[in-house]
Design brief:
single chain, 570 residues, alpha/beta, Rossmann fold, six-stranded parallel sheet
Length: 570
């Protein structure tokens, strides 16, 4: 006979799958065993893809990466107690980034709460307002209507990841918490039935849901700059072209390409001619990689329009944004005022960007030297140590539209943002809260989702590679992500670690000029971990690259999960 716990768990997961869930991540535990075993049976039946991780924080960020790539809510299943708290960093990142996620926690029944029972704490409310909605369900005992209740719960939770504000019409996407109590017997055998046809669910894309919301009509006559932060998407590039406007697109914006791209936006923002000519600022996404962008907006002397994203907050530096809209439409009605020749505004900015990108790190070659001198110079260049810029540019060169690039919240993301020329590739960075938590786990989730077929379909050889460009501290902070189950697909991924032995990103702080040993101890936090031995312990391939001439070949050789360590000077 099927235990009520397993019957309920099976019905709940089956309805989630019917609604569109393709991936379930499980962190094992006793109280959640009915959910975990039901997920395993559904995976064996080809109905869903199951990923198992023993570290709950790793599991949560893996789920985040899966959702980022698929655009669908991923289920993350845990047991009770501290396991629930371990998910909090990923829940916060999903909340601020607008990523769909369904947290499914197993709890003790009501009669075991508040009496000191083992592994029992308060689950409900633990994530605060970082979840769109919380569902708290009592333990199933086999009463009539429980299975129907499980189906209704799954439908409600799936729909809740997309929330519409009744007053403003603003759409936000993010995590939902489902807390289900379980009592003895905690599980039994359970066999999946037919999943059935997928139900109709609201689209999770805000771009597909602008009807009845604020759509701003803009003409190209005014001197405008389009700023694209994380999550902006290609619409920012399309709009910049339609407005004849320069595009200041951060590297993880999804808009870092096109003829209007101006890479040195930091320098341009500080240019007096640019500031004097600017008449309108249009923002997509969440800019986080410079001080210049918020400074520009916070000045408050230029009309600023922000296109809302799906994350928790509307971007509003200095509370200086004039208005928030849900979409923009560029119109040319012949009545444009302002500069009659937009190219006179755009042209010099694009030319300045091209000149900036043409700058070389090395001195110009001696064209008057003999063949021996030129050969010696070329050999010296090949043997030269790798700089941050050289590393960032090499990773960018190696990455193509079929690939994925993930960049940790470290010093290297800013270097890449400063020097990468335009190219339409998929780039992601966890910039919702810009933390280093779970970066490798997120990248592995993106890699797996991009290389795997839909549940029930035969797997094929990966057509692209996911590269993670990370600093050493961000890498070590998520080292548990390297533990890959032997019976699950291995991600087609390269983790490129720029190792400068600490948090040198803090060297950019003003206080660093006055600091000494105390600064190094509490800010730099130097480390001497042997990454080669770490890779060997987790069964990853490993390469150490010290010379520029070896970097491109190393990035081109992809054979399963690989760590490439690149020593960098502080």
């Amino acid at each position: 006979m099927t235990a009520p716990s397993s019957a309920y768990a099976g019905a709940l997961l089956t309805e989630f799958i019917r609604r569109g869930v393709t991936d379930v991540v499980v962190a094992p535990g006793s109280r959640s065993q009915a959910l975990a075993l039901a997920a395993a049976e559904l995976d064996a039946a080809g109905a869903v893809r199951l990923h198992v991780r023993f570290d709950e924080r790793v599991a949560a960020f893996l789920a985040l990466g899966l959702s980022i790539e698929t655009g669908r809510p991923t289920l993350i299943v845990t047991t009770s107690g501290t396991a629930v708290a371990e998910l909090h960093p990923a829940v916060l990142e999903a909340h601020h980034s607008g990523v769909p996620l369904i947290v499914l926690t197993a709890d003790r029944p009501e009669d075991l709460r508040g009496i000191g029972s083992n592994q029992t704490t308060t689950h409900v409310g633990v994530y605060g307002d970082a979840v769109r909605r919380t569902f708290d369900v009592g333990a199933p005992t086999g009463e009539p209507g429980e299975i129907e209740g499980a189906v209704a719960l799954a439908a409600a939770a799936f729909d809740a990841v997309r929330e519409i504000d009744a007053d403003t019409g603003r759409i936000s996407i993010g995590p939902v918490h489902v807390n289900v109590a379980f009592t003895e017997p905690l599980s039994s055998a359970w066999t999946p039935g037919e999943i059935g046809a997928a139900a109709e669910s609201p689209a999770l894309s805000s771009a597909a849901s602008t009807r009845g919301r604020i759509v701003e009509q803009l003409s190209p006559g005014r001197r405008t700059v389009v700023i694209a932060g994380t999550g902006a998407g290609p619409i920012a590039e399309e709009t910049a072209r339609a407005l004849d406007a320069p595009l200041f697109a951060e590297i993880a914006s999804g808009a870092h390409f096109g003829p209007n791209l101006a890479v040195p936006y930091r320098e341009l923002i500080r240019d007096e001619d640019f500031l004097d000519g600017l008449e309108r600022i249009l923002v997509f996404g969440h800019p986080t990689l410079s001080r210049e962008v918020p400074w520009l907006i916070a000045r408050g002397d230029v009309e600023t329009i922000v296109v809302r994203g799906t994350g928790a907050d509307d971007y509003n530096p200095g509370h200086a944004v004039d208005r928030f809209v849900d979409a923009v439409e560029v119109v040319r009605d012949g009545s444009d005022d302002g500069d009659p020749q937009p190219s006179a505004w755009l042209g010099p900015i694009v030319a300045a960007s091209r000149a900036y990108l043409a700058q070389q790190e090395d001195l110009a070659p001696d064209v008057f030297g003999g063949a021996k001198a030129r050969a010696e110079r070329e050999l010296a260049a090949v043997r030269a140590p790798i700089t941050r810029r050289a590393l960032a540019e090499a990773v960018w060169r190696a990455t193509w539209p079929k690939d994925r690039l993930v960049v940790a919240s470290s010093r290297l993301v800013r270097v890449l943002d400063r020097w990468a020329p335009g190219k339409r590739v998929a780039v992601h960075a966890n910039r919702g809260l810009a933390g280093i938590d779970g970066t490798t786990s997120t990248a592995i989730g993106i890699a797996l989702a991009s290389q795997l077929r839909q549940p029930g379909e035969e797997a094929t050889a990966p057509t692209g590679v996911t590269r993670l460009l990370t600093g050493d501290l961000a890498f070590l902070h998520d080292v548990g992500a390297l533990a890959l189950p032997a019976d699950e697909p291995r991600p087609h991924i390269q983790v490129i670690v720029g190792n400068d032995h600490g948090g040198t990103i803090f060297d950019g702080l003003e206080v660093a000029e006055l600091a000494g040993a105390a600064f190094d101890r509490v800010m730099l936090t130097p480390q001497q971990v042997d990454i080669a031995q770490l890779a060997a312990a987790y069964g990853w391939s490993y390469r150490r690259v010290e010379q520029r001439g070896d970097l491109d070949p190393a990035l081109s050789a992809v054979d399963g999960p690989t760590i490439i360590e690149v020593p960098l000077e502080r």
